[in-house]
Amino acid sequence: MFYLGIDFGTSGARACVIDPAGLTVAEHRLAHPVVTDAALPDSWFTTLQQLILGIPAAVRLKIAALAIDGTSTTVVLCNKQMEPVSAPLWYHDSRARLEALELEQLAGKHIAASATSSLAKLLWLSKQNSSTAAHVLLHQSDWLSAKLCGVAVSDYHNALKLGYDPQAADYPEWIKALPQARLLPRVVEPGSRIAPVQAELNAQLGLAHGCLVHAGTTDSLAALMATGPVEEGLGVTSLGSTLVLKQISPVRIEDADHGIYSHKYGSYWLVGGASNSGGAVLAHYFSAAELQKLSAQIDPDLPGPLDYYPLLKPGERFPVSDPAYEPRMTPVPSDPAAFLQALLEGIARIEAAGYALFERLGAPKLKYVVSTGGGSYNPVFSRIRQRLLGVPVTQAKHTEAAYGAALLAAGKIWGQS
């Protein structure tokens, strides 16, 4: 039998089918069409169906289980039939600023007390929608899974910014006391079996009889799952537009003053932080061809003389949490290769400072780092990072979130199946 992972990202959706050994059997991807916000849920579900139908029929007939990941904190308010009673709010939507302040007054500095959190969006949506038909708030992957199997639940990765406490396996009392608490979804472990795909839909999609829908996760967590087995002290660095660090830890670490929070990850905790530095700074100054050419002129083992903190504008989240933090990218050398080296070393120092902060707060000592994202393909950058981190740096074999979701469906993350 085969296992299907579906990734709903910001620009498109991807499907990956694997066999029991974890080998990729089939892949398919689609770009998201441009539609109005109100039409988004229907568009998501149409894309989901087209994505599955784009997999060869002989492969679909052997798909025994599937899991879906989606963009974190993208939410929609639904009725009992899982039909939207509001337009969805995207992950980056920050209109719930007043609601975030209300939550901060209740709980102080809390992961759910931000304008982009699922909980703040729930409060905002409940104020805009007085309909008594509203029954539950669902995240993007929750809703898609519910449309397939008819059962509405969330997972504790998506629900973290809804205020769910995975350690207590419940919502905190202050959240359960909110008038909107009746709209909170039931939360299960990512990868848990929910229900079979509804029979008529299963036949239309040509899946194996009784194909099971498993609880999903967020797109960033699915991408991390794709990187492979975990152990204490493993660090995973995403070198995309921004710099995102995650580290496997036996203990939960939360520090709002440094922009740090932890996801439950099987029997471990996944400590995370995200800097505003990263690939966007490099792309601002250099084309992809220039980056490749100039990198070849750098000796990664010979430190440069400049101490940069590369940011495109003031403001940093992690390892320094300061909305007014100033970029530091002067003096600018006349040699563009020297300028690039200073930027690469500056980003690498931020990475090293982030992992050092995790350790000071109680995480185990960093053993090695697996890299994902566009920056992981630059061998000179990897050598610079390895020098400054003092641990081995490797590139992830698998980086597609859809592959991670497929592993989740197969029970290969922490053995649900």
Summarize the structure in words:
The longest helix is centred in the last third of the chain and has 25 residues, at 336-360. The mean pLDDT is 93. Strand 11 and strand 12 form a beta hairpin. Helices cover 31% and strands 21% of the residues. It has a six-stranded mixed sheet with strand order 3-2-1-4-10-9. Helix 3 (97-107) packs across helix 4 (118-128) and helix 11 (336-360) packs across helix 12 (379-389). It contains 13 helices and 16 strands. With 417 residues, the chain is α/β, with parallel strands linked by helices. 49% of the residues are buried.
Topology:
Elements: E1 2-8, E2 12-18, E3 24-31, H1 40-53, H2 57-60, E4 63-70, E5 75-78, H3 97-107, H4 118-128, E6 136-139, H5 140-149, E7 154-155, H6 173-176, E8 187-188, E9 193-196, H7 199-205, E10 212-218, H8 219-226, E11 234-239, E12 243-249, E13 261-265, E14 268-275, H9 279-285, H10 288-295, H11 336-360, E15 368-372, H12 379-389, E16 393-395, H13 401-410
Parallel strand pairs: 1-4, 4-10, 7-8, 11-15, 15-16
Antiparallel strand pairs: 1-2, 2-3, 5-6, 9-10, 11-12, 12-14, 13-14
Helix pairs in contact: 1-5, 3-4, 8-13, 11-12
What coarse outline follows from CA principal-axis ratios? globular
| Secondary structure tally: strands | 16
**SSE pattern:** EEEHHEEHHEHEHEEHEHEEEEHHHEHEH
- What would the average pLDDT be, to the nearest integer? 93
Concise summary:
The chain is an alpha/beta fold and 417 residues long. It is 31% helix and 21% strand. The strands form 4 sheets. A 6-stranded mixed beta sheet has the order 3-2-1-4-10-9. A 6-stranded mixed beta sheet has the order 13-14-12-11-15-16, with helices on one face.
